[in-house]
Amino acid sequence: MVKLANPMYTQWILEAIKKVKKQKQRPSEERICNAVNMSHGLDRKTVLEQLELSVKDGTILKVTNKGLNSYKDPDNPGRLVLPKPKSSSGGGLDWNKLIKRALEGLHEPGGSSLKNIERFLKCQADVAAHLSSSGSVGTNLFHQQLRVALKRAVTHGRVAKQGPLFMLSRSSSQDSSSVALSLESLPAVRLLPHEKDKPVAEPIPICSFCLGTKEQNRDKKPEELVSCADCGNSGHPSCLKFSPELTARVKALWWQCIECKTCSSCQDQGKNADNMLFCDSCDRGFHMECCDPPLTRMPKDIELFRHIQEVALQVTR
């Protein structure tokens, strides 16, 4: 009989990981054990056993970097340590194309689940080759990046979501330029009060999407990276699907990647993360309930752009 982690203990460990991260420390075994013991009185041996079981069943993510183990919440992993590319010729994955290919290929009337989308893509030759060359780390990253890519696709109206199911939106075949407004006509972006004098993480010189560098993107062309001020994760603007205008605006901001993104209004990340909207004019995040007036449904396409753009401008005034 396979032994499973106790859900209550797993929750305690996740709370401990969050607590340790808030203290700007690495969530190691020792710190997690101490935090759980202080909060709930659970002994070290039991905590370590439950931590190992939670890692095995996927409820907690284990990351090893330079021989040191860290533990993360899979639903809020923050910075993921990426493997360095084995050669500069290694191609990356275009998530927008992969998602569209999966949803068109599955062609399920009511929509497709994340599990079905992932299973479909792993059977594709290019994805299978990518995963085989990346090992177990690549497999873990693939799941995380697919979740992130789907979330962003929903936010930007390329994919519609009903409950746990995803489907292509009617506008997904349209060119994004048909709904984009000119960013040049908008006021210049500036740092928000809580962003001023805030420390910036050291940039990781590797794109988390294609694993290329500033010398070579997925199209074998040089391209400067955009880096998260919070965790240092980087990406090529072309991999992030940023226009040249948006890229220029983002570089002037204290930009956060989608894993670290906090609401620019309430400055909270964990609260109702599924209702986080992204501004097409600055890529800042806003909870639906933090908009003024609060939103009760997810706006789409041009409606989303206009509303969130207005909220972003209100916050920066």
TrEMBL record:
Keywords: Activator, Chromatin regulator, Isopeptide bond, Metal-binding, Nucleus, Phosphoprotein, Repeat, Repressor, Transcription, Transcription regulation, Ubl conjugation, Zinc, Zinc-finger. Residues 204-263 form the PHD-type domain. Its main location: nucleus. GO terms for molecular function: DNA binding; zinc ion binding. One of its GO terms (biological process) is nucleosome assembly. It is found in: Nucleus. Residues 1-77 form the SAMD1-like winged helix (WH) domain. The keyword Repeat applies. This is Uncharacterized protein.
